[in-house]
From TrEMBL:
Gene3D superfamilies given in the database record: P-loop containing nucleotide triphosphate hydrolases (3.40.50.300)
Recorded family membership: Belongs to the ABC transporter superfamily. Ycf16 family.
InterPro entries: AAA+_ATPase, ABC_transporter-like_ATP-bd, ABC_transporter-like_CS, FeS-cluster_ATPase_SufC, P-loop_NTPase
SUPFAM superfamilies the UniProt entry points to: P-loop containing nucleoside triphosphate hydrolases
The protein, known as: Fe-S cluster assembly ATPase SufC
Amino acid sequence: MLEIKNLHASVGEDEKKPILKGLDLVVPKGEVHAIMGPNGSGKSTLSYVLTGRDDYEITDGSISYDGEDLAELEADERAAKGLFLSFQYPVEIPGVPTLTFLKEALNAQRKARGEEEISAPDFMKFVREKAKVLNVSPDMLKRPLNVGFSGGEKKRLEILQAAVLEPRFLILDETDSGLDIDALKVVSDGVNSLRSPERGMLVITHYQRLLDHIAPDKVHVMSAGRIVASGGPELARELEAEGYDKYVRAA
C-alpha cells in the first residue's frame, strides 16, 4: 500500500537542511506499523513529507501509494485519496465550530472523489454516532475547533476526524503525547476501531506504552534519517528496557 525507497528529504525555505537520508519502508494494506526513535531522528519529518507539507522537499528516492507516485500530488489531493495525518500538536482554529469543520472537510473529500455531498441531517446522525464512541460530547462539537481543549480532548477530536473521514491510510504522529492513562485508553480504542483489512496505519511514537494498546504488526527503529532496525512487537519492549543508544551509535 505504501512503499518508500531510498527517500531523501530536506526542510527549510532558503538553506535546506537534510533530514531523511535514504529511508526504506513498506507498509502493506491491512497492517499497522510503528516507528520509534529518539528526538531528531526524522520521524515527524517523514509524516510531513508523506502528507505534502510546504517547505519539505524530496531530493531523492520515491514514495508509492497504491501504485501512484505520491510526490506528484498536492497535499489536498493526497487527503482526497485517503491519506490522514494526526498531528502531535493539533491546531486551534478560533471561530470555526468543530461540527462545521468536520462537515466541510467530509464534503470537500466527497466532492474531490466525485461523490454527492452528505446532507445536514445525515451528517448529524453520522457524526454523533462516531463521537459517542470517543466520549466527545455535543458541547465539544459546538465549540471552536480545539480552542480551550485539553490535550486529551484535542487528541480525541483528531481520532473523531479520522472516524468521520474514513481515510485509507492513517499516520499518527505521537498521538500519545500529553495523554493521561484514561485518555490514552479512549484514543487507542478509537484507533483500534479503525483497523481494517483495507486500511494501513503508521504509528509514530517515542514510547512503548502506546503500543500496549495499539498492537503493531511490525516495529521500526529510526535514527539519523533512516530505518536502522525492524522487528515484531518485542522490539518495542526491548527499546523501552534498553533505550536507543545502540541504534544511535550504529546509525
